[in-house]
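INFO  loader      accepted 1 record
INFO  loader      residues=316
INFO  predictor   begin
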Amino acid sequence: MTRQPVRVLVVGSMNMDLVLTVERFPQPNETVFGTATREVAGGKGGNQAVAARRLGAETRMVAAVGADANGRRLIAGLAAEGIGTEDIARLETAATGLAVIPVDAEGNNQIMVFPGANLALDVEQVRAALAAGPVPDVVLLQLEITPAAIRETVRLAREQGILTVLDAGPAGAVEMADFAGIDVISPNESETLAWTGIDPVDDAACQAASRLLLEQSGARVAVLKLGRRGAWLQPPGAEGRRIPTFETVRAVDSTAAGDAFTAALALRFVETGDWDEAVRFGNAAGSICVSRHGAQPSLPQREEVQRFLAEQGGVT
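INFO  predictor   done
INFO  writer      dumping tokens
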């Protein structure tokens, strides 16, 4: 029996990323020289859309870009992936979002974002996308758009019984009340600390932080992205547990790894209904991503994730 593709609607940001490779990050008021630079399609929303599509989902994107060269390039890139772009607004009144991303020799990154047109994403776009159908199985969100757009997306999705998954970054961009009622909340380590005041340095801290996130947001599930330590899963009605990632991977660039993880997590849960399996699948997608440079260029195809898992001893 042929499995129907998961239908994913991504509501979020699209940026052009200016990536600079450096040996180390500068201290305040210090200059360091880069070894390479490149422009790469990015934005947490765009990254999640590409990740979901490459993993086999039918994917549509709701976003806003400027009526400029970067906006045209970003839309063309999504369309070439087979992603629905009819719900992306092209605005004369705002420039396309831009991110400046230094990446050090260990693969760590820092991200500075000019949001631009992302902050003009209108709630009417979300309503129109959900009304147009087909009804998605899952809506993916991040926090690089306005609080109003986030609140309305969560409200409309809940009305239709659609699973909502939030990549809870960047922290501080909105208030937690703006995404109250989300189904799944997934911050990284620094975002977990910012939201809860708890640094998830060990399993006890992860347990405390995830429970606090569920209490404050009303989410059913929390998944903390812990980088080289894997992910902490706090499922409904059960004890939380850490699911290790794969130690065989050499990280060169962590850009978009969290987006790959979140998209893979959501898609695989819709397919299987199994949170442990979904986290393992997300860990694999993220592991492949960090072994490559760039945001969207680093996102893996489904066959790559399946092959990677088979090599690690667990076929998915």
